[in-house]
Every structure is written in C-alpha cells, then in structure tokens.
Design a protein that fits this description.
Elements: H1 4-9, H2 16-34, E1 41-42, E2 51-52, H3 59-72, H4 75-100, H5 105-117, H6 119-122, H7 130-149, H8 157-170, H9 172-187
Keywords: Cell cycle, Cell division, Membrane, Transmembrane, Transmembrane helix
Protein name: Cell division protein
GO biological process, one term: cell division
C-alpha cells in the first residue's frame, strides 16, 4: 500500500541519498559481475575515482544489494523489492518485539503498522539507508528485554553479537545509536 503509487506510475524515486546509494550498489554489482573485487575502493562508480565508501558505510549490505541489482536487472525492480524487504523485516521485528514485551496481539499489530508509517523506517521510500538500521532495531531491542527480564542470564551473547554485527554491516551509524541502551544497562 505504501509503494502503490510508485508501482502504478512505474517510477524510480530519486533523492540525494538514492543517487549516492545507487552509485555504491552499482559499484558492487559490477565488482560481482566482473570478478574484479575491491573491498575498499569504488572503481566502477563515483567517476571511477577509487573513493573509499563501502568499507565504512555498510559493506555487507552493499554487496548484498549489488547481487540483488544483478538479479533484478533494473533500478525500478530493485527499489520496489528493497522497500518491500525493509517493510517486511521491520513489521515482523516490531510485532515480535511487542509480543516479547507481553503486549496484546492486536496492539502488537497496530504498533508494527505505526512503526512502518512514521519516522526513520518510512525514509526507505526516499531510499535513505538509515531505514535499514531502524528495521533491525526491534531485534536489538529484544535483547534489551532479555537483559531486563532474564535475571539468571541477562545477556544472551550470541544473539546480541549477531544482531549488532548485522547492524554494523548494514549501517554503521545505526550501530552507535542502537548500542546506547546496552551501554546504559551494562553500566548500571
């Protein structure tokens, strides 16, 4: 429903963030296609400038996005699929977080829908990659609930490490924002 107009008009949303991310994803797709890998430099995009970008801006997501771009073959299909994936991951995560917090199932669905409609998550419609961090935030916040509720084993190391590593590989700045509650809980 949120991307209905984009599908009906068959249009690609171009914003400043979209153009930047299209460049980095094009670079990784060309690296995969040619087999000429360069983790640090962008040799196919940004005017073949050799800019260091993906290494500090979510390398895993860049390569996953590059592969996806190769598979779907155009920016329109890519953008629709990515927006759908972000909304799906986000909706499921917020719903599960609400249930973990012992919220009524109907309220959990409403919270998930509200989370999808407002703030950072909705920015994926403008192709702002901060939405990826916001999509994974509910999964990290589940770890906070474990820390509060589980007195015997408050820190579930493996699941905490996995979600934080995934967030770091997707959007580095989100890692800092999401780590703050853990730092506060561990220091008290």
């Amino acid at each position: 429903m949120m991307i209905r107009s984009q599908i009906l008009t068959h249009s690609v949303l171009l914003t400043s963030d979209a153009l930047l991310h299209f460049q980095r994803l094009y670079d990784t797709s060309m690296q995969i296609k040619t087999g000429n890998f360069s983790y640090f430099q962008t040799n196919f995009a940004f005017g073949h400038s050799g800019r260091i970008f993906n290494a500090v801006y979510g390398p895993f997501l860049a390569y996953a996005g590059g592969l996806l771009l190769l598979l779907v073959r155009n920016w329109f299909n890519f953008q629709i699929l990515v927006i759908f994936i972000v909304f799906l991951i986000t909706g499921i995560g917020m719903y599960r977080l609400a249930l973990k917090a012992k919220v009524n199932e109907v309220i959990a669905i409403l919270l998930a829908v509200l989370y999808l409609q407002f703030g950072i998550v909705a920015r994926i419609l403008r192709f702002n990659f901060m939405a990826w961090g916001a999509a994974l935030a509910p999964y990290a916040m589940m770890q906070v609930l474990y820390m509060i509720e589980d007195k015997k084993r408050p820190i579930h190391w493996l699941s905490l490490a996995l979600i934080m590593a995934l967030i770091a590989q997707v959007h580095l700045l989100s890692t800092i924002f999401i780590a703050c509650p853990f730092c506060h809980l561990c220091s008290s």
